[in-house]
Amino acid sequence: MSGRIGYLGLGSNVGDRREQLQAAVDLLAGHGVRVLASSSTYDTDPVGEVLDQPSFLNACLRIETALDPIGLLDACKAVERERGRVLAGEPGYVHHGPRPIDVDVLLLGDLTFAHERLSLPHEQVLARRFVLIPLLELDFDLTVPDGRRLADALAELPLDEGVRRAGPPLAVATH
Ligand SMILES: Nc1ncnc2c1ncn2[C@@H]1O[C@H](COP(=O)(O)OP(=O)(O)OP(=O)(O)O)[C@@H](O)[C@H]1O
Ligand SMILES: Nc1nc2c(c(=O)[nH]1)N=C(CO)CN2
């Protein structure tokens, strides 16, 4: 497959969290997304609008895909749905609430994209330690399309959002 290089963020705080993240990696290939590498997994304090919930397991993936941005978002949503996730707009959905699996599109090549369903880069990519730390593990020189360095963004964030290495990278198929 030839296409763009991108980065996805995975998160889970319900059930066997590592198993949820691994299942998402394994399902992506069936949706036109080749997973090239995984970061380690990290146990992270909840951030956002719901703080009273179990800690998350987070990881980031480097991917290659020929999908366009909305196609990639649809692939991520399909994986979430296959893993039983209640999606935004459905009964029982809680914004920022507990979820068995969350698959976010963080970066896709050097694309910037503003659509009601998709922002690229992800709006929070420079603001969340649980995203920046695994991304920098994959590539310390990563930048967003306007040239800002992720490493500089991390250095400027307060240290109050706990991010603890939890385990080795998720298994990625080799071809
Ligand atoms: N870069 C992006 N990656 C994934 N979803 C996005 C992105 N930009 C916008 N969205 C939209 O955000 C909607 C809500 O996503 P989701 O249910 O994962 O929200 P959340 O996890 O509660 O909050 P957050 O988006 O801050 O992680 C999605 O249905 C999608 O249309
Ligand atoms: N630590 C952490 N906190 C979160 C996460 C997440 O993946 N990790 N996802 C959220 C919903 O997008 C809200 N808060």
UniProtKB/TrEMBL annotation:
Query: What's one Pfam family here?
Result: HPPK
Catalytically driven reaction(s):
6-hydroxymethyl-7,8-dihydropterin + ATP = (7,8-dihydropterin-6-yl)methyl diphosphate + AMP + H(+)
GO MF? 2-amino-4-hydroxy-6-hydroxymethyldihydropteridine diphosphokinase activity
User: InterPro entries from the xrefs?
Assistant: Hppk, Hppk_sf
Question: Annotated pathway, please?
Answer: Cofactor biosynthesis; tetrahydrofolate biosynthesis; 2-amino-4-hydroxy-6-hydroxymethyl-7,8-dihydropteridine diphosphate from 7,8-dihydroneopterin triphosphate: step 4/4
This protein's source sits in the domain of life called: Bacteria
> In its keyword annotation, does this UniProt entry include tRNA processing?
no
**Locate the 7,8-dihydro-6-hydroxymethylpterin-pyrophosphokinase domain: which residues?**
95-106
Keywords for this entry?
ATP-binding, Folate biosynthesis, Kinase, Nucleotide-binding, Transferase
Q: What is its EC number?
A: 2.7.6.3
Q: Which NCBIfam families match?
A: folK
Protein known as: 2-amino-4-hydroxy-6-hydroxymethyldihydropteridine diphosphokinase
Which gene underlies this protein? folK
